[in-house]
Amino acid sequence: MGTNLLAVVLAALVALLGPCLAEGAPRPQGPVVLTVTGDVGIANRGPLDPPNDRLLETHNARFERAMEFDHAALVALGLHAVSVRYPTWPAGHRFEGPLLRDVLKAAGVTGGVVQPVALDGYAAEIPYADLERWPVILALKSDGRWLPLGGAGPAWVIYPRDDFPELARQDDLKWVWGAFQIRAIREKE
Fold first, then answer.
1. Chain-centre distance of CA 110, in angstroms?
2. Is 144 domain-assigned?
3. pLDDT reported for residue 23
4. Which of 94, 102, 108 has the alpha carbon at shortest distance from 74?
5. Overall number of domains in the chain
6. Smallest Cα–Cα separation from 33: which of 113, 139, 143?
7. How distant is the alpha carbon of residue 129 from its chain centre?
């Protein structure tokens, strides 16, 4: 009977932990700067833990699994640079960060709509088609410096408006700064 109990316990552990172990997504070693929630295909953490996820809970995040990134994990996706001079800025800036589509791909998100969420609660809907059409970056640096909390950090969605004339006419509503979470929403069928 001891062998049967052990087999049942092992089967239960595999059922509970199997999806996480199979995905092979490592946990961040440094402080988490971005959490991708919603329709993620790859996860490295379990459900919302209200006592430890206070900021996420404050912004009504609800999830059973998510993908967390620290700076090192985001940098490992490759830094891309884009220079932008926005009409209301006194000068242009050079931003660096991974392509937003690469961040989402690392979380197993390949379509639908994504909603970057800022520390102040602002969120914008970005069709995944935008990310396939343009090299939108999740900026971590501006002019060679890490984006600070209390400034525009930890991350800022930047469209390459100076490189694509059609983007020059768009406003900056999708340029979420202070982004710490991205909600992945499956396309409506």
1. 13
2. yes
3. 52
4. 102
5. 1
6. 139
7. 16
- 180 assigned to some structural domain: yes
Q: pLDDT tens digit string along 20-74?
A: 433 558 899 999 999 999 999 999 999 999 999 999 999 999 999 999 999 999 9
Asked if residue 128 is part of any domain, the answer here is yes
Angstrom distances, CA of residue 144 to CA of 31, 67, 176: 21, 27, 19
Which band of pLDDT confidence, cut at 50, 70 and 90, is reported for residue 6?
very low
Distance CA 74, CA 119 (A): 18
**Residue 2 included in any domain:** no
* CA 100 – CA 105 distance, rounded (Å): 9
Determine the Cα angle at 184 with ends 142 and 107, to 5°: 75
Q: Does residue 141 have a pLDDT over 60?
A: yes
Judge contact between 179 and 56, C-beta under 8 A.
no
